[in-house]
Design goal:
Radius of gyration: 31 Å
Shape: globular
Strand content: 15-25%
Strand order of the largest sheet: 7-14-15-16-17-24-21-20-19
Number of strands: 36
Structural class: alpha+beta
């Protein structure tokens, strides 16, 4: 039977692929038999087949068994089926193994129907995937609820719990198949998806769909797109920077950027005589994107139709290998719906790339490469080298393109080498028949001159590619690597929780941004490997990232802290140049550790350049020291402390001791000329750029670091691991001085006792928040708004983000009270609450980190507001809450901070004084949370509810650990389980 014959039409089905025949009708059905052989399924199938037979609808059964007919006869189905494709019926096909797209296509051929107008009903995700790849119009997954994720990822159009859920019409005029009890198409928590093409949202989507593995990352742009104001393809390598000098007016400005490397995803596809298929094409009928967070796979489905009704489906899946970090792959299926003819494919590496993703840098020189060098290697492979024009770094990419049929066999085609307009690759022509599908398999290997154990980047890249298997084998290894990461890092929330998707999205992007399986000399860019925001620099944001890693895989934190250690000499040199001893880490760091903080900031509101004095944020060194100590507390890694960590602690302490000046009359120490985390105050009114005095955050943390540096030296006994005097070790007199300073740094308080942000903060003018919110709506960046008006944030009691309140984020109330007492100040509980309320009312939340910190400090006093701020922080990039900044990269600190909140804030996890402390306080909206910890080498599964805390130690040979849960102290051994009832809190 062919389309259009007089038969019952299965219409109005949820055919989201748009492949159905005229008026969306379907006229044939294929059953995948392998997973449907149960009594209930067979009885339901029998009824359906009798109905189809009566209504002259052709049917087929596809089976991996050698001979399926005996089984069909046993169930009384053999006489009801039109076509059977089993081992015997498919013996002539070049199959790669069951299930295989070729089996389904063979069934359609024998029924004389087109895949586009045929339904496939399958019980396995593999079968759904094969049928989807073959281009069938509607693919139905049948299975239990826990199979729904697999079905959706595989491409199922509709998902049902069992065959009997499909209610069939009893006559040609009856109602179509309905879904009275459908299985949810997919838990929202693991699939980030979007429908339709919206140019205004494309930049944000490209960021959110970015794939990365810590070594390199690729934005989720449409294959074949170029930077055009809508699309912004980007490929970024961790640690690969380049400096350029731009003349702004008459002033030269040197800036260092993480470079946008050649685009390996370039793939142009066009029918003969037509324009290239692209979302912006008038031929586009449907466009869908989905990121499978569990597997790290991005899918893009596009459906095109010309004026003559000729339809084409282009579907791609790609990943940045988590198991083989130098590799990436993309598999694109093209289905000719109802036309015969040829298509032209351009598969290339696009070297015509610049840094154009960040609006703030639009006036800077964005060209970072010398002319490329390329060569064809074999008939399907091309290699390209590019070199940065200042740093002299080489990036080599090797790309292999193969044209295959759905069974994986090579497809005849013509190919020629492309070397034009910055494109290096192959132009391929393939002839298709109606209903035929081909697969374009593109595998890419990348190497840079920063890599270890290589001869040249090109030789290494081509050698890796030669050893790389096909897409499916690479995908299996990649998915297994992601499964291992999720087993360690997943934070389990109730499935129905609206926070679950955002939690998984944030976890995914943090893990994608750190090297999990390769050793690199690279830090954590504040915007990940997702875009060019902040020029790819490393800030104090790592302070928010490390806890999420340290408590699960501390070796990742260790590797990232080594980025800071390797740049310790540069920090020492910076301190020396400023006239101080010790180490002064820069506010913005890139390749070498020199201060990359720009002297000017581009104000996008009025198009002007304004002075940027954020280099005064020397508190970044305190954050480095804090992270070193927290790593040691979790791991007890004495070797790291002796070789690397103590040096960083000591040199940071030495710097802050050096910049503190002594007021002998009051026996107090002052730190002047700095800028706090607030970022809105770089000076007092009328003195721009000179800094402020006694920032509370800086002074309190400096006191703590001075004490911890001394404690580290006590632990190590003043010696390094080689038992010789460490040249950087402080002598007794210096340690004594540090002890004095750590006890006498000055803090300031308002007249009513509120902890002042800095000396003189209370004297600043109050700000008219209502007027500015009414005028501007989003007032997060008041620094830009006021500068455009000729005013300055230095004049007002306003904060961009948490400053004083960061102290309550970093320390428990008990710890902070001890630091204040060390300094000679009291910190009563009522003062904490008043201080929190005071600054929360004066904060613009101009940083994504702000809501994380504020949510944290409110967790024990105002759980409702804490959850509200937490929810906003979770959505910072999903909802682009900073007003368009997500297109320039994710906000990695906020993403990691929200994941960490579920563990250390709401879960109440602390590590100090050789104990693991757990003091949970779950909000009403979070009835249960579960996660895994790694404390001093011991893996621990933690499950918390409002009523119970359960710790399960994994079996092994680890040493016992001390835990403290809700006042109960225990020493636990591998394999132990501890259950503690939690008291209800108001």
């Amino acid at each position: 039977m062919t389309p259009g014959q007089d038969a019952m039409k299965l219409e109005n089905l949820p055919a989201t692929r748009g492949r159905a025949g005229p008026e969306g009708r379907f006229d044939a059905v294929i059953f995948g038999l392998d997973a449907l052989v149960t009594a209930d399924a067979m009885h339901a199938m029998a009824g359906m087949l009798r109905q189809f037979l009566a209504d002259r609808v052709p049917t087929a059964v596809v089976s991996s068994s050698v001979d399926a007919r005996p089984e069909l006869q046993a169930w009384g189905l053999a006489s009801l089926v039109t076509v059977v494709v089993d081992g015997r019926g498919a013996a002539h096909l070049p199959l790669s193994g069951p299930p295989d797209p070729a089996r389904y296509l063979e069934a359609a051929r024998q029924m004389e129907t087109h895949p586009a107008t045929t339904i496939v009903i399958e019980g396995t995700s593999e079968g759904v995937r094969a049928a989807t790849a073959a281009g069938f119009g509607l693919v139905v997954g049948i299975g239990a609820p826990d199979q729904a994720i697999g079905f959706r990822v595989a491409g199922a159009t509709a998902i049902f719990g069992c065959l009997s859920d499909l209610v069939l019409p009893s006559s040609p005029g009856a109602q179509p198949i309905t879904t009275p009890h459908p299985v949810p198409p997919a838990p929202d928590a693991w699939t980030l998806s979007s429908q339709g093409f919206n140019p205004a949202e494309e930049g944000q989507r490209e960021t959110l769909y970015t794939l990365a593995n810590g070594y390199w990352g690729t934005r989720g742009s449409q294959p074949g797109s170029t930077s055009d104001g809508v699309h912004c393809p980007g490929t970024y390598f961790a640690g690969v920077y380049n400096r350029r000098t731009t003349i702004l007016g008459t002033t030269p400005m040197e800036s260092e950027h993480m470079v946008n490397a050649p685009d390996w995803t370039y793939l142009g596809i066009a029918r003969q005589g037509q324009e290239v298929f692209a979302p912006s094409s008038p031929l586009l009928r449907e466009h869908a994107q989905s990121l499978d967070l569990r597997r790290g796979v991005l899918a893009i489905d596009d459906h095109y139709a010309d004026d003559g009704g000729r339809t084409t489906v282009v579907s791609s899946h790609r990943f940045q290998s988590q198991s083989d970090p130098h590799l990436a792959a993309m598999k694109t299926t093209v289905v000719a719906g109802n036309w015969d003819g040829s298509i032209t494919i351009v598969s290339a590496i696009n070297t015509s790339v610049t840094n154009g993703n960040a609006a703030d840098d639009s006036m800077l020189d964005e060209r970072h490469f010398l002319p490329p060098a390329a060569a064809q290697i074999g008939e399907d492979t091309v290699a390209v080298d590019v070199q940065t024009n200042q740093s002299g770094l080489t990036i080599a990419l090797a790309a292999r393109t193969r044209i295959l049929d759905p069974a994986g066999a090579p497809v005849p085609h013509t190919s020629s080498f492309v070397n034009s307009g910055g494109l290096f690759g192959h132009e391929i022509t393939v002839v298709l028949a109606a209903g035929e599908a081909i697969t374009i398999e593109k595998t890419v290997s990348a190497t840079t001159s920063r890599d270890h154990a290589i001869s040249t980047p090109r030789l290494d890249a081509t050698a890796r590619l030669a050893l790389a298997p096909g897409f499916d084998a690479l995908l299996n290894r990649h998915v297994a690597a992601w499964a291992a990461l999720w087993a360690r890092f997943a934070v389990e929330l109730p499935e129905a929780s609206p926070a679950a998707l955002a939690m998984n999205v944030n976890t995914f992007h943090v893990l994608a941004s750190v090297p999990n399986s390769i050793e690199l000399d690279a830090g954590v860019p504040a915007r990940g490997l997702h875009g060019e925001g902040y020029r790819g620099h490393i800030f104090w944001d790592e302070l928010f990232v490390y806890p999420m890693l340290t408590l699960r895989r501390p070796e990742l934190t260790r590797q990232l802290l080594m980025y800071r250690y390797r740049r310790l000499d540069q920090a020492r040199a910076a301190a020396s140049a400023a006239g101080f001893s010790g180490a002064m880490y820069p506010w913005q760091s890139g390749s070498s550790g020199r201060d990359e903080t720009p002297a000017q900031l581009f104000n996008t509101l009025d198009g002007s350049w304004m002075p940027d004095h954020s280099h005064l944020q020397v508190h970044v060194g305190l954050a480095v020291a804090y992270s070193v100590w927290q790593y040691y507390q979790v791991t007890a890694d004495r070797g790291f402390l002796a070789r690397y960590g103590a040096q960083m602690l000591v040199e940071v302490a030495r710097f802050f001791a050096g910049i503190a000046t002594h007021d002998a009359a009051a026996d107090r120490f002052d730190i002047s000329g700095v800028m706090g985390p607030d970022e809105f105050h770089d000076a007092y009114p009328g003195s721009p750029g000179l800094g402020i005095r006694n920032n509370s955050y800086t002074n309190v943390l400096a006191s703590w670091v001075l004490a911890r540096a001394a404690e580290a030296m006590e632990i190590l006994g003043g010696l390094d691991v080689h038992e010789r005097p460490a040249p950087w070790a402080p002598p007794p007199a210096e340690l004594q001085e540090w002890d004095h300073i750590s006890r006498r740094l000055r803090l300031h308080f308002h007249a009513d006792g509120i902890i002042s942000q800095f000396d003189g903060y209370e004297a600043l003018a109050e700000f008219n928040w209502d007027a500015y919110r009414s005028k501007y709506g989003n007032v997060g960046r008041l620094d830009l708004i006021l500068q455009a008006e000729g005013d300055s944030t230095n004049h007002y009691q306003i904060s961009k983000q948490a400053d004083v309140l960061m102290l309550f984020y970093l320390f428990s109330a008990e710890e902070l009270r001890a630091i204040f007492e060390r300094l000679g100040y009291a910190l009563p509980a009522e003062l904490v609450q008043r201080t929190v309320s005071y600054f929360l009312a004066r904060t613009s939340h101009g940083s994504t980190l702000s809501r994380v910190a504020h949510s944290w400090v409110l967790a024990r006093s105002d759980r409702e507001q804490s959850w509200s701020l937490f929810s906003q922080a979770l959505e910072c990039d999903l909802s682009d809450t900073q007003g368009g900044t997500t297109r320039e990269g994710v906000h990695l600190g906020a993403m990691a901070g929200t994941v960490d909140m579920a563990i250390r804030c709401y879960g109440g996890v602390e590590t100090r004084q050789g104990e693991l402390l757990i003091h949970p306080l779950l909000p009403t909206e979070l009835p249960r949370v579960a996660f895994q910890l790694s404390y001093r080498g011991q893996p621990i599964d933690v499950e918390l509810t409002h009523h119970l805390a359960v710790l399960r130690l994994r079996p092994g040979t680890m040493a016992p650990i001390r835990v403290h849960v809700e006042g109960i102290r225990k020493t636990l051994h591998p394999g132990d389980v501890l259950k503690v009832a939690l008291r209800q809190r108001p």
